Amino acid sequence: xxxxxxxxxxxxxxxxxxxxxxxxxxxxxxxxAAGWAIxxxxxxxxxxxxxxxxxxxxxxxxxxxxxHRKTLGLLRDLKGAKSVGVIAEYPELGIVEIARPVxxxxxxxxxxxxxxxxxxxxxxxxxxxxxxxxxxSPKGATTCAAxxxxxxxxxxxxxxxxxxxxxxxxxxxxxxxHALMRQADLVVATGSQANVRAAYASGTPAFGVxxxxxxxxxxxxxxxxxxxxxxxxxxxxxxxxxxxxxxxxVIIDAIYASALxxxxxxxxxxxxxxxxxxxxxxxxxxxxxxxxxxxxxAPRIAQLAGLERDAFRTARFLMVEEAGxxxxxxxxxxxxxxxxxxxxxxxxxxxxxxxxxxxxxQGAGHSVGIHSADDEHILRLGLELPVSRVxxxxxHCYATGGSFDNGLPFSLSMGCGTWGxxxxxxxxxxxxxxxxxxxxxxxxxxxxALEDIFGEHFSKYGR
Length: 463
Fold this sequence. Notes:
Blueprint: H1 2-19, H2 24-39, H3 41-55, H4 60-78, E1 85-90, E2 95-101, E3 104-108, H5 116-127, E4 131-135, H6 141-158, E5 165-167, H7 174-183, E6 186-189, H8 193-200, E7 206-208, E8 214-218, H9 224-236, E9 246-252, H10 253-265, E10 268-270, H11 273-283, H12 298-305, E11 317-321, E12 339-345, H13 348-361, E13 368-371, H14 375-384, E14 390-392, H15 396-399, E15 434-440, H16 450-461
Parallel strand pairs: 3-4, 3-6, 4-5, 6-7, 8-9, 8-13, 9-12, 10-11, 11-12, 13-14
Antiparallel strand pairs: 1-2, 2-15
Helix pairs in contact: 1-7, 2-4, 2-5, 2-6, 3-4, 3-6, 4-5, 9-10, 11-12
């Protein structure tokens, strides 16, 4: 595999060494050009149609929305951000920060977002004056190749080296992907946990993200119609390909009888116990989630499972009542489809316990949603649950990766902290693609007296 990967790395290093000489204005021009390559309406539609056709996953119109929205939001975040030369000065500390490239980035991307995720990683890498080589999923390789063609055409207009942005040649193999990770200077991995673990084990510095399995709590103070509409929108967007789509909803008992009709009004169909058993047998025929159900629309899922009730023909999403979490309760895990597990909690304490149990099985570190007007309950989730984000009264799959009406960075890669066995808990952004050099000058001494540090300790416990 080195025979395939080494020439790509060598070409990338030549291009990156040239690109490293660009000033901030020239870098920002390259970033903007790469963004327009996917946001151009004609390109966007072609990429979305190609992605659905070749992967069999998702919805064309939703992928168009995702490609546009995620890229526009990222470009908004990057506009005016310093990534060349001096990026910050702290006179009181005598510190000056200078942005430096990391070099050649290996970007591992999933089949669920074969256009938006490569574009996001490419743009962030270019912002830091890096070269980037994409290792797409095999099913997403054609979409990635088309995207790179559009990007190269835009780079050519600026006279920028095309080898700044490359991808592994088809057919994409694990061996080639692993070789790329070993030879690059930084790995950024999004997708299967197998790829994330391989990135961390590659010997190259790596950022990888944890598994998604989002739960959302509907608190007793929630606006039920609003909560149901937002959960339905999030659960059905792009047929739930996003790791940020809710897989479970936990409803407080006092409002359970009212919340279920609200979810039904938003397009959910609640399965009977017999229908649930039938769906479970079809989705996990050998204990493993069948790929035929991934990112399919709810009527198709019902059809695959042999569910024949008329209501399934127009369902937006399917709901199953669940009472436990773990391998014996497969609906408690990530389903990558518009199927929602519904839990009934005695009170808010119990709701927190249910979510903690779900995340002990799968999804720890990612995020939790809450629909509530109770600030104490909202804060409690951030203080107690193993999550990096608490998404409040929002469409979860939009909000988690940044939104125009919240302050999170736009990203398709969400760090899950040590809970999710990641080394970061931020939304991956351009700063993760930088080395930062710090110049340190002498300042007035700030050495404290012993009493300043130990005074309280001495007064309580003696010397």
